[in-house]
Amino acid sequence: MNNTVIRRLRTEWPLHFLLLPGVLVTLAYHYGPTLGIVMAFQKFQPILGFFKSKWVGMRNFEYVFHLPGFEQVLWNTLIISFFKILFGLAIPLALALLLNEVRKTWFQRLIQTSVFLPFFLSWTVLGGVLFEIFTLRGPVNGLLSSIGVDPIMFMGSNGWFRGILVGSDVWKGMGYNMIIFLAAIVGINPSLYEAAEVDGAGKWKQMLHITLPGMMPIIILLSTLSIGNILNAGFEQILLLYNPVVYRGSDVIDTFVYRLGLFDRQYGPAAAVGLFKSGISLLLVSLSYFMAYRFSRYRIF
Amino acid sequence: MVYKESLSRRAFHVVNVIVLSAITLMGFLPFVHLLAVSLSSNTYASAGEVTLWPKGFTTNAYQYMSENAAFFESLVVSLKRVAIGTVVNMLLVVMTAYPLSKENAKFQFRTVYVWFFAITMFFGGGLIPTYIVVKETGLLDSIWALVLPGALNVWYTVMLLNFFRSVPKDLEEAAIIDGAGHWSLIWRVYLPISIPAIATVLLFTVVGHWNSWFDGILYMNSPSNYPLQSYLSTLITAINVQIISVDSLAALQDLGEKTLRTAQIFMGALPIMIVYPFLQKYFVKGIVVGSVKE
Questions:
Q1: Which of A95, A222, A249, A274 is most deeply buried (CB count within 10 A of its CB)?
Q2: What share of chain B is helix, strand, coil (3-state, %, to 5)?
Q3: Segments in B60-109 forming alpha helices (H)
């Protein structure tokens, strides 16, 4: 028994050796912080470190959940995510269906390239663009004033700002999902369409009865997988674009943790919210992967 | 067989082309606007009179920018980050994906390792504990703070290991008979065959490093260590503060401020806008392989 382990180690050691750097980095920068979660149960003081800080049990959690505005933060997270997921799937799906009807390949390629562009740019660049076009004297307000609408403070109004968050997120991501949907359309058996044609189905009927059902597995897969992400409402985007005026409508768990931890130096409570979020996310992600496996036989490995 | 299209069908095509054209314009008109503003005189730009064509054409902003030390310092940090980060990431991804692509019979501990890495995709310490670990390991203010914490991307590893698995076993056996060890197997057999996957991961890694801004802000205490995108984010946060009060519209009209800012943001996007159309087909293939698999 022991002998076989030793013999195996002798032949397999190069493989362990290859994995060593990856294991070390993961231990240090992933498992390290994961252990650091203990500070959620401590009155953490950086000078004392994890070992000497005082334990406070669940008090950090109680403190945070009773903070005024925490409910609003949860609500913002859910509602912003929900609309990002909904439009982030529906619009690329519609685009893919429309694009599939285009017969000129150069036009198809032009659309793909242009729709895909924002995906590769950073939120800083896109943020810069958004500020320029939505500013008080920017082109969007210029357009509005030409039809007689008063200028709108898009980036400084709670009502409009969420819309901009969702809209720009969809704008950035739609190329990516469109490609996935297009790939699914291409994978549909063409003889189905020929058969439908013979039966007298028009293009609309064909889309309804062949294309959409054919894409169902991938649509279900993408939507189930996105459930696991519902607590990630888009940290970098919001952090960059928001300002105190729109905190009420756009502060999400991640931005809340960021301000609580790194600005107010409340490490313990901030870690507690972070842990709360990670816990629920873990549940949701496991659930969504389980469902994705059940519905679509999707596996990571 | 030629058959005439129905009227409604033709109407659909016209509408379709119009809708899609509008969406195409949404993809790049904003950047044309950005470029136009950056090439306009500041008076017109801050009055909001520039739309898609420069007004009062001037390259002042770009000239001014070429003398702006902060921009170039951050550009150098970014280039360094992309170079070091990409090499480290690629090495680690390949070195990790290869052993994990072995069958259990050939690598007894495979499952243990797979779980060790897979767990990191589902659960982590979050922002604050990660910050503290980076701080405690002494990386603050060093380029390694931008490279080491994310040195191993598990998603790309999974993508690559799935690709490695499709390498025909005969090739490997033939190489082993010729006396190849693991290292030369990787270099001579696995990598050459996996070029499409490697190219995809490589491009995503480069773009990822070039585009990251938040870790720069988080881990660099001194703005002179900011990579380009972090530096750009400070420009955006600066407008953000001004937007709060309408009174400070005057501040927006500071000399050259608006055109300079747009010029810098445009330059931050330019490398990708130039390269990306040529690399698009790789990205597209990689995305499809990575997401839609049986």
A1: A274
A2: 75, 0, 25
A3: 60-66, 69-100
Asked whether the beta carbons of B23 and A115 are under 8 A apart, the reply is: yes
**Of A26, A110, A155, Cβ closest to residue B243:** A155
Whether residue A236 lies within 8 A of chain B, CB to CB, comes out as yes
Dist. CA B1–CA B43, nearest whole Å:
62
Residue B253, pLDDT above cutoff 50: no
CA distance A181 to A94: 9
Structural tokens at position B153: 């991307």
Structure confidence at residue B293 (pLDDT): 45
User: Å from B15 to nearest chain A CA?
Assistant: 10
What contacts A285, CB < 8 A, 6 or more positions away?
A: A228, A229, B122
Answer yes or no: CATH 1.10.3720.10 is held by domain B66-290. yes
What's B190's DSSP letter?
I
Rounded to a whole number of angstroms, the distance between the first and last alpha carbons of chain B is 38
End-to-end CA distance of chain A: 30
Query: Which residues in B lie closer than 8 A to residue A98 (C-beta atoms)?
Result: 16, 19-20
* Upper half-sphere CA count for residue B273 (Cβ side, 13 Å): 16
What CA–CA distance (Å, rounded) separates B24 from A118?
11
Q: Tell me the pLDDT tens digit for each residue of A48-101.
A: 877 888 888 889 999 999 998 899 999 999 999 999 999 999 999 999 999 998
| Six-digit token string for B58 | 């001037």
Give the start-to-end residue ranges of the domains of chain B: 1-57, 66-290
DSSP state of A119: G
- A22 Cα to chain B: minimum distance (Å): 6
**Which residue from A minimizes the CA distance to B203?**
A120
- Per the CB < 8 A criterion, the answer to whether B221 and B141 are in contact is yes
For residue B189, give how far its alpha carbon lies from the nearest alpha carbon of chain A (Å): 16
Higher pLDDT, residue B245 or A74: A74
The residues near A10 (Cβ < 8 Å, ≥ 6 apart) are none
Q: Which residue has the tokens 């009062």?
A: B56
